[in-house]
Amino acid sequence: MKVxxxxxxxxxxxxxxxxTEHTQEVxxxxxxxxxxxxxxxxxxxxxxxxxxxxxxxxxxxxSKSSINTYQAAVRFFFGVTLNRSMNYLQMPRxxxxxxxPEILSREEMVRLLERCENSKHRAMFSLAYGxxxxxxxxxxxxxxxxxxxxxxxxxxxxxxxxxxxxxxxRQCLVFLRDYWRNFRPNHPDGLLFPGSNNISxxxxxxxxxxxxxxxxxxxxxxNISMHSLRHGFATHLLEQTLSVPLTALVTMGVEIQxxxxxxxxxxxxxxxxxxxxxxxxxxxxxxxxxxxxxxIDTCDNCGxxxxxxxxxxxxxxxxxxxxxxxxxxxxxRQHLLDIPYFHVxxxxxxxxxxxxxxxxxxxxxxxxxxxSETILELCADRKYLGAMPGITAVLHTWGQNLHFHPxxxxxxxxGGLTREGKWRNSKKHFFLPVRVLSxxxxxxxxxxxxxxxxxxxxxxxxxxxxxxxxxxxxxxxxSAGKVISxxxxxxxxxxxxxxxxxxxxxxxxxxxxxxxxxxxxxKLMTLDAEEFIRRFLLHILPSGFxxxxxxxxxASRDKGKRLALCRRLTNSSQPAPMLSVTAL
Length: 584
Prior knowledge:
By secondary structure, this protein is an alpha+beta fold. Helices cover 45% and strands 14% of the residues.
C-alpha cells in the first residue's frame, strides 16, 4: 500500500469511531510528521521508531500535554490502522504539570474591554469571560442562539457533540448589541461572527491574534489566550460565590425595583420627596408589573401569543433605557461625519453642589451654557481652529459611588465650518489646550452664576475662582462608528444600572464601583438601603429638563443644510436609512 492509502485508512478508522473533525485533523497532521521523521517505509516501522520519535519530541519545545497527544495519535496509527501490537509500557504517558492557568484579574479584564476599540472583538472577549464559551463555540455561534428574553446562550454541538445552555450577562448583551449595531452580520447561515469573506465563520486563530493585539494595547504582558478568559470566568465566579449569591453574579438577582419596593415606604416616613421624585419612584416600582397593565404579542406565522407587562418608560428607570437609547443612536447616526471626534468633560468644584441641588433647573442650564460657549468661542478663534464645530453634550450628575457630581460629557467634531463655508480640520491628536479650556470655563460659569444669583455668598465665589477646575479631553476616535458606540454609554445612563447591583440583604445594598482615584480599581461598596435610596434620588432630574443638547453644527436651526454641506466638504458617505431596533 502507498502512504496515501494508509492515511486514507487512518481517517476512515477515526470516522468509524466518531472522532471529531478537529481530532482527525490533529491526528492526521501528527502521523504525517512522524512518517517524515522516521524516513522509513510504513511496512518496516516498529515501536523503536516510535520511541525515538517520542524522545525527539521531549527534547523540543512542546508541552507535556502536546507530547501526550502526539503519542496517542501514533499509537492509534499503529494499533488500529496498521493493526500492530506495541509494548505501551516502553512509552508511558507523561505526567503533566498540575499548574494553575494564568488568568487576568478583574481589573485587567476591565482594562482590556475598555481599551478594545473594535466592537466585534469586544463582544467575543466578553462571551469567553462573561459566559465561559470556548473559542470554537464563539466561532460557531449563530444569531438565533442569543436569547435576550431568558438571558441565556444556546451552545450547539459543543465538546463531545453535546448541546447546552450558558448564562448571558447584561453587560455581555450590551457588547453584543453594540457589535450588531456597527457590523450587522448578514451570513446566509446566520453566523454571528462570520469571517472576512462572509463564507465561513471566523477562525480561532484570528480571534487569538486580535486578543494579543488588544492585550498589548492595554499594557498587559501576561501570556493570555481566549481559553484563559474562559478560565477567568470560572475562577472569578467561584471566588465571588463565597460572598455573593450566584443569582447576583449572573445578573438575574436584585434590581433597583426590589430595593425601592422593600424600603421606600420607611424612607419616605423621614425623607419628604418632591413631585418628580415621587413619580419616578412609583414608576420604577410599578415597571413591568400588573400595576401598569399588559399587552399581547402574537406571532404572524404560527399564531403563538405571549402576555407581557407594560414598561413605565421613565427616563430614570434602569429597565427602560435600552430601546430609547438604540432609537436615539440610530437617529444620530444620520448626522455623523467621517472625521475624528473628541471627548471633552467639564466638571465643577464640589463646593457648588449645595447650590446645584437648591436650583437644579437653573444651574444645570448654566452648566450647559458655560461649557458650550467655552468650546464655541475658543474654536472661533483662528489661533485654535477658526471654525464652528459640532457638539453633542450630555449631563451626568453622579459619580461611581452615587455621590452628587454634576458634569458635562461632550462629543466634539475634530474640525468645523468656517465663515466662508469651508471645512477646516483640527490638529490630528490635539483639540484645544486643557488649561485654556479650564480657565475660560471657570470664568464664564462663575460670571453667569453671579449675574443670575447676585445674592450668592461672595466668599464662595472667591474660593471657586482660586481653584483649578477639572476639564479634560480624551484622545480622538478613529471613526464615526466608534463615536456611535461611545455615545451609547453616556446618553441614556441612569445613576446606577441593575448589573452593578450584587445583593440586598438585612437592609443593606452591595454594588460594584470603580475607584478612579486608585487606578480604576473595581471595588465593592455596601450601604444602608435608605442611604442608597437617598443617593439615587439626588440624580432625579427636574421635569422636562433636556439632559442631551446639541450646539454648533448640530444645533437644530438649518441643521440639515449645514450637515449636507459638511458631508460634501469632508467626503463623508451618505447615512444609511434608519432601521428598526429588533436585533438580538
